């Protein structure tokens, strides 16, 4: 596809010399070959998310720069990846950019559980790798229904030109089946140090502490490819900006909201203050039951039982699913479900295409918000989120994660980025 000249100029500004940005790639394995929703994949993703938040059954330095990194959209909005270089000479990996965790890991050569397509790091080909003595053998990081184990190393890690020559990370030797697939080669955690399993300092925090960032901010623009029939498994996913924002991708002011006070930061937490469905407010839990993790590494939106039920009660014809599908809801495919979220300020709309994950048969479509807690009272504990707000919401806003003061900002997408509540532009297909 040939882009109009004005759009080409706008996109070119994304990688302008004074403000380098990181394109993202997106992958979406949630659809079957006939275009319907692959229910098993959706429900398995939900179980992993429940586990991640404790509701499952199983608990060369560039000073003061702003760097933009292209993002890869994997599997039609399933996950968003960014490239990171590890070792000397560097080996390149596409990792999930995850504000819902804090560890960096990639698989090692010969890892158990990696499929044939999984890229792996070969430590024998790096002159800068150092193994870190832990005194207790392998370290395990658990992500709900999946986990990864391996050894702790220190290595040279770079992204978008930023470099940490002594990044502590996990070199994975064993992965649970299905934890990653295809081009995905690990996870880069972008939450706070208190959340790490490897007792490491997250890459972005290292950069901030060293004064490498022009501003202690990370920003995201995510594309929507779920409505693009020509999108491949890997397609342009947007831009991840380290050290500031990209003004070409949003319009108006950024609404910054302070993180929940009184506890050591772990997740990026806000409090859900209001939800509307088709223009009318619905009753949702308050207090600790309104804690919301803003999580770029999550595809959907999960919430507490009462809040999710209230949303679907306001969508005509919606029905709960049973069995393995418990916690999910479906509604007539011809129903337009316009939902907005507010975290104490403006109401931010979710596109109806993001609320509708696709057909499950008999004229019904699967909803993009599911019951995360399944009635659990775990969310009554201070600091534990009951809402996990993933890409179903984040595709609709420009989001900024700021370290000082700890806060999250949202802004309306610019025309070049698709505009608020509109389809995102279809960017040219990435070379694979």
UniProtKB/TrEMBL annotation:
<keyword id="KW-0064">Aspartyl protease</keyword>
<comment type="similarity">
    <text>Belongs to the peptidase A1 family.</text>
</comment>
<dbReference type="InterPro" id="IPR001969">
    <property type="entry name" value="Aspartic_peptidase_AS"/>
</dbReference>
<feature type="active site">
    <location>
        <position position="295"/>
    </location>
</feature>
<dbReference type="InterPro" id="IPR033121">
    <property type="entry name" value="PEPTIDASE_A1"/>
</dbReference>
<feature type="domain" description="Peptidase A1">
    <location>
        <begin position="80"/>
        <end position="411"/>
    </location>
</feature>
<dbReference type="InterPro" id="IPR034164">
    <property type="entry name" value="Pepsin-like_dom"/>
</dbReference>
<dbReference type="Pfam" id="PF00026">
    <property type="entry name" value="Asp"/>
</dbReference>
<keyword id="KW-0645">Protease</keyword>
<feature type="active site">
    <location>
        <position position="98"/>
    </location>
</feature>
<protein>
    <submittedName>
        <fullName>Aspartyl protease</fullName>
    </submittedName>
</protein>
<dbReference type="GO" id="GO:0004190">
    <property type="term" value="F:aspartic-type endopeptidase activity"/>
</dbReference>
<dbReference type="InterPro" id="IPR001461">
    <property type="entry name" value="Aspartic_peptidase_A1"/>
</dbReference>
<keyword id="KW-0732">Signal</keyword>
<dbReference type="InterPro" id="IPR021109">
    <property type="entry name" value="Peptidase_aspartic_dom_sf"/>
</dbReference>
<dbReference type="GO" id="GO:0006508">
    <property type="term" value="P:proteolysis"/>
</dbReference>
<feature type="signal peptide">
    <location>
        <begin position="1"/>
        <end position="17"/>
    </location>
</feature>
<keyword id="KW-0378">Hydrolase</keyword>
């Amino acid at each position: 596809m040939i882009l109009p000249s004005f759009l080409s100029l706008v996109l070119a500004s994304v990688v302008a010399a004074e403000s380098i940005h990181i394109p993202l790639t997106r992958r979406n394995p949630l659809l079957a070959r006939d275009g319907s929703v692959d229910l098993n994949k959706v429900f398995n993703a939900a179980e992993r998310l429940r586990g991640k938040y404790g509701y499952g059954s199983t608990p060369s330095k560039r000073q003061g720069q702003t760097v933009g990194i292209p993002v890869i959209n994997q599997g039609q909005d399933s996950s968003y990846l960014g490239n990171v270089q590890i070792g000397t000479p560097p080996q390149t990996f596409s990792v999930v950019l995850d504000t819902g965790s804090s560890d960096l890991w990639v698989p090692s050569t010969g890892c158990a559980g990696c499929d044939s397509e999984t890229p792996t790091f070969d430590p024998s080909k790096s002159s800068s790798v150092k193994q870190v003595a832990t005194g207790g053998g392998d370290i395990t990081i658990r992500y709900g229904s999946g986990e990864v184990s391996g050894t702790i190393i220190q290595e040279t890690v770079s992204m978008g030109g930023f470099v940490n020559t002594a990044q502590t990370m996990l070199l994975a030797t064993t992965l649970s089946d299905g934890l990653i697939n295809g081009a995905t080669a690990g996870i880069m955690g972008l939450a706070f140090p208190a959340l790490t399993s490897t007792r490491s300092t997250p890459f972005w925090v290292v950069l901030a502490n060293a004064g490498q960032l022009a501003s202690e901010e990370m920003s995201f623009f995510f594309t929507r490819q779920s409505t693009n029939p020509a999108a491949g498994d890997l397609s342009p996913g947007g831009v991840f900006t380290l050290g500031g924002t990209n003004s070409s991708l949003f319009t108006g002011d950024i609404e910054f909201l302070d993180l929940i006070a009184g506890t050591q930061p772990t997740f990026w937490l806000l409090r859900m203050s209001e939800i509307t469905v088709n223009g009318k407010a619905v009753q949702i839990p308050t207090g600790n039951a309104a804690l919301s993790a803003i999580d770029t590494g999550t595809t959907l939106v999960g919430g507490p039982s009462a809040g999710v039920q209230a949303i679907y009660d306001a969508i005509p014809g919606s029905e709960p699913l049973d069995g393995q599908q418990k916690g999910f809801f479906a509604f007539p495919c011809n129903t337009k479900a316009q939902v907005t979220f507010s975290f104490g300020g403006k109401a931010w709309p979710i596109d109806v295409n993001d609320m509708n994950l696709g057909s499950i048969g008999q004229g019904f479509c699967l909803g993009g918000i599911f019951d995360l807690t399944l009635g659990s009272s775990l969310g009554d504990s201070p600091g534990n989120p009951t809402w996990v707000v993933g890409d179903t919401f984040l595709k609709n806003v420009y989001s900024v994660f700021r370290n000082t003061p700890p806060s999250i900002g949202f802004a309306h997408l610019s025309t070049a980025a698709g505009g608020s509540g509109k389809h995102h532009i279809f960017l040219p297909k990435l070379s694979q």
